[in-house]
Design goal:
Distance between the termini: 30 Å
Number of helices: 5
Number of strands: 6
Largest sheet: 2 strands, antiparallel
Strand order of the largest sheet: 1-2
Helix content: 40-55%
Length: 174
């Protein structure tokens, strides 16, 4: 997502197109979508392959084990479920945060600050819609939560956070 003020060379855009990287030009804080590319010429083969990997439990676990190896530089422990691998990853990430906080002399209280802010948002938002996002050490690089009747629902797909758009009230899916 490229916000106003972002400078990208022609060569970088060309390379992104060649390797199939989606670039999206948005307004400040991602409020408006101005333009986006269509990597791969709108082919569906990669999407269908990803769906196959996500829907087959054995393939999904194989992908999770490979991602674990890529993240940590070592093979995932044998005979562990995806949920158990997530727990191991979460413990390692928390430990990393603690060590970095100590190294840079920053008080780290985990999610407590974010949760306090979110509690205030829920009290003040009334009938409004709110999305809160933050940087994470995940494949997508961020996580988010939503409040209100905004038709957007966070979905977790093996640690990758996606958004499911719900139909408008009164409309049922076709």
């Amino acid at each position: 997502m490229l916000e106003p003020g972002t400078r990208v060379s022609h060569a970088a855009i060309k390379l992104a197109a060649q390797v199939g990287t989606l670039l999206i030009w948005v307004g400040e804080a991602g409020v408006r979508l101005y333009s986006s590319g269509q990597p791969g010429g709108a082919r569906s083969d990669k999407l269908l392959y990803q769906a196959q990997l996500a829907l087959d439990p054995n393939l999904r676990l194989k992908v999770a084990r490979k991602m674990f190896q890529l993240r940590f530089g070592e093979a995932a422990p044998e005979r562990r479920s995806i949920e158990q691998l997530r727990g191991i990853e979460g413990a390692r990430v928390r430990k990393t945060y603690q060590l970095q906080a100590k190294q840079y002399r920053v008080t780290w209280n985990g999610r407590k600050v974010r949760e306090m802010i979110w509690n205030q948002i829920e009290k003040l938002a009334a009938d409004g819609n709110v999305v809160m996002s933050w940087a994470t050490n995940s494949e997508s690089g961020f996580d988010f939560i939503t409040y209100g009747n905004n038709r957007r629902e966070p979905v977790d797909l093996d640690g990758l956070r996606l958004v499911r758009f719900l139909p408008p009230k009164g409309n049922s899916p076709a």
